[in-house]
Amino acid sequence: xxxxxxxxxxxxxxxxxxxxxxxxxxxxxxxxxxxxxxxxxxxxxxxxxxxxxxxxxxxxxxxxxxxxxxxxxxxxxxxxxxxxxxxxxxxxxxxxxxxxxxxxxxxxxxxxxxxxxxxxxxxxxxxxxxxxxxxxxxxxxxxxxxxxxxxxxxxxxxxxxxxxxxxxxxxxxxxxxxxxxxxxxxxxxxxxxxxxxxxxxxxxxxxxxxxxxxxxxxxxxxxxxxxxxxxxxxxxxxxxxxxxxxxxxxxxxxxxxxxxxxxxxxxxxxxxxxxxxxxxxxxxxxxxxxxxxxxxxxxxxxxxxxxxxxxxxxxxxxxxxxxxxxxxxxxxxxxxxxxxxxxxxxxxxxxxxxxxxxxxxxxxxxxxxxxxxxxxxxxxxxxxxxxxxxxxxxxxxxxxxxxxxxxxxxxxxxxxxxxxxxxxxxxxxxxxxxxxxx
Length: 438
Ligand SMILES: NC(=O)c1ccc[n+]([C@@H]2O[C@H](COP(=O)([O-])OP(=O)(O)OC[C@H]3O[C@@H](n4cnc5c(N)ncnc54)[C@H](O)[C@@H]3O)[C@@H](O)[C@H]2O)c1
Prior knowledge:
single chain; 438 residues; alpha/beta; Rossmann fold; eight-stranded mixed sheet; binds nicotinamide-adenine-dinucleotide
């Protein structure tokens, strides 16, 4: 049994308080709004949510759940504080951290007079760096104590959906805990023992970011489905059948595939098919702003790749991989061809190695395409990785051919690797690689 104070009796804080009390913990719910405090003291829920009234009534009756507006008392009588205050938008869209700042000051002030170790857990959604740059300094200043030494700090984002939030408390998609100390993370994880979900212990910044990635992706899914729905409507096609077939594909569609940060897409299908679909939408007078943004965003990624190379201010470049993905000689709309052409145009001394394309030049169906369409690139191709390493001041990894895995072992002092495809992350070799999304 833990003694927990929960700050903020909104959707997140109320559900958290009621469910943690039901799990046998002693919970003190805190809010500056005394009306909400009185409602909970009366055994009722301050928000409308399935099953919540009953849970709160049970908690208050058993004494497991109490409510107060007194933050000092709440901190002194608990060992962990969950911060669940709002984090709304400012007028310009930036994050309003004022509630968070106030509650951090309240908790910090209370910690000043407390001898026992206390852990502050942020459950509000906050941008990466907010805990480190806003919450911790205020807690330290108000408490005259040191985070990570005298008290613990952790980030534990909430993934519940309103209207199903009690169910989601017990069945979240995952539990993510970012903490200064592993022992604090362990302590928080114990609270979720009754919850069956993957448990991820990580850094505070990653835990902060994960929540924004989730919500941005959920928002993207909704507008994507709506735009597809609008195009289908204009074509007289049943969008629900289309999207349910789309969702049945758990190999390429609803899956981790295509969700690794790295370089631009290319090849013979994605660019031309996105182009055709957005052209068709335009012909039908259907606005598809998200679909329209795909190709410009992809183009931007090529520009970022180019910038990562040129900012190193070296002239001799060796590119490993020319086709848009390993194991194919298809170089139609390969972003690496565009990248290479930009480098050549800027006067860089480029060599390229791609086993599949070298083979195609000897005998494959793409021989003519390579010689006719990109002779200026074909003549820069070499036949061994070692020739790239001998030539280059910067080695660029352009696709995930398995033979590029160990290229770091071939490097001489002073040579750098620009890793466009995230190979370093897979090999845990970030120290010798400049990544595209590092
Ligand atoms: N609502 C959701 O479905 C949901 C889901 C996941 C994450 N979140 C995140 O959780 C956080 C809380 O969201 P919410 O919808 O529960 O907010 P909310 O606005 O419903 O409730 C916030 C509560 O905090 C109280 N509060 C403000 N300052 C306080 C202080 N100093 N001390 C004590 N209480 C204080 C307010 O009076 C209010 O009752 C936000 O960061 C939100 O983005 C919300």
